[in-house]
Amino acid sequence: MKKDNKSWQSRMAQDQAEIAVDFVESISVDHRLYRHDIAGSIAHAGMLCEQGLITKGEYAKIRKGLLGIQSDIEAGRFVFDKRFEDIHMVIEAELINRIGDAGKKLHTGRSRNDQVALDMRLWTRQAIDEMIAAINNLQRVLAVKAEEYGDLIMPGYTHLQRAQPVLAGHYLLVFVEQLQRDKERFEDSRKRANVCPLGSGALAGSTLPLDRDLTAKLLDFPAITRNSIDSISDRDFCAEYVFACSLTATHLSRLAEDWILFCSQEFGFIRIADAYSTGSSMMPQKRNPDMMELIRGKCGGVYGNLMALLTMLKGLPAGYNRDMQEDKKQVFDANDTVLACIQMAAAVVANTAFKPDGIADGLEEGFLDATVLAEYLVGKGIPFRQAHHYVGKLVSEAEAKGLTLAQIPLADYQATCQKIEADVYRYLSTGNVVARYQVKGSAGKKQLKQQLAFWKRKLK
Predict the structure, then answer these.
(1) I need a surface site. Which of 66, 258, 372, 443 has the fewest CB within 10 A?
(2) How do residues 150-178 score in pLDDT, each as one tens digit?
(3) Is the distance from CB of 146 to CB of 176 less than 8 angstroms?
(4) Is 111 a catalytic residue?
């Protein structure tokens, strides 16, 4: 005998099997949409009232009932009943239980299809704003650290081999730049998420006189979607959001990789505070950069979320399909993971000290001034390729003798190239190199000062 009191199951001759209830429920995941669902329902009810589809008294009851449910959820007094499957029907069932027939009118002109599309857009819009704020904070932390260590010279690397000297502040601003692009991606994706789908119904809209523009205005959307079928089946904004999360995770992972290397004894460039390090269960001497290792490790999970979401979407026919219920797991997990990683990265960076003595030790090794020597020869009228050849030969000779370029006698320089004069020593050594950088955006003190001034204005 059929006992199911779910309104959308009236077509069925049998109650849903318990195993089916467990399989289709999403309340365990989408309960976090309750604020957005209630906000959307209040706006929808307000529009219904303006259109004469419900009375002002009914609207007042609906609004009060929904706000009461929200209050109970936030106070931890609300029980989410999985028999009603999702946050939309859980709230509606409770509303009807509390206010009676007026609650039954809330779903007028609305489907769970456009309702969930609305909730996800509202949630994504808010999530983007929170993500941007977190990124902005990490950028500020990095910029402060860049100013603190602005005069510290350190090796720059290509292929993880010492390449040219750079200022530590210039190095730190690498990640500020990367995060700025991340922030701009989120800002741009917000435009496509910030469109109201409500009123599209299950697929084709409604024969009722719904005012979609009013609903959008009440929810602070600047526009409504144009095509009802696309409105309820579009999850591009979800995929775009998770992609933006994925690329942010990439940049956080690269920052983490550097920090992991730089705090090792082999590099000895930085020290992460004990509060953000862990010990070993077996080796008592260990100080492990586990926070940064976890940031690096969690990046793969965010990529997995993106691939799962894209794979879910790729084979769907036009219109709503229940597959889309799986989008929330991926979107929520990507959001939570990246947000936590950004916050942890900010804490670690703020509590990291660079070690000038560790960096200075051996700084002149590795021929970081080789490029400036080649450019010195260019200034003497020697073609760059010929200059490159001369310097390569000089580096080989210095390496064999255990000398730096600055220690090579002038006679040996002139034996290789007669145009090298005594002024060459004003170009050699890392300090002289950094002082001579001229190009905009390069690793010199003047350029760093300009970059820091820019970021102070930008991140205010």
Answers:
(1) 258
(2) 999 999 999 999 999 999 999 999 999 99
(3) yes
(4) no
